[in-house]
Amino acid sequence: MIETIPRYVGADPIVDLLLEDLPIVDGKWSPPRHEGLYLPLDWARVEALASVSRTWAL
After folding, report:
1. Cβ–Cβ contacts within 10 Å for residue 24, how many?
2. Domain boundaries, the chain
3. Smallest Cα–Cα separation from 31: which of 40, 43, 44?
């Protein structure tokens, strides 16, 4: 089981940084079938709320 705080409660700040709700079905994490962890971050929102901004060159 996975515990989440519903968006309407307003107590879980991570939901404000996501483009869509977490994929939870019947109380369980329901990841997509492709590789990687599915967290669709809204990077513009992350940047707007960040206290420090850095640019990294690879």
Report:
1. 13
2. 7-49
3. 40
Q: What is the pTM of this model?
A: 0.53
For residues 35, 41, 47, 51, the Cα torsion angle rounded to the nearest 10 degrees is -90
> Which of the 8 DSSP states describes residue 48?
H
Profile the chain (58 residues) by mean pLDDT over runs of 10 residues: 72 79 78 74 88 74
Look at residue 47 and give its three-state secondary structure: helix
Element (H, E) at 24: strand 24-25
**DSSP β-bridge partners for residue 41:** 18
Half-sphere exposure of 19 toward its Cβ, with a 13 Å CA cutoff?
7
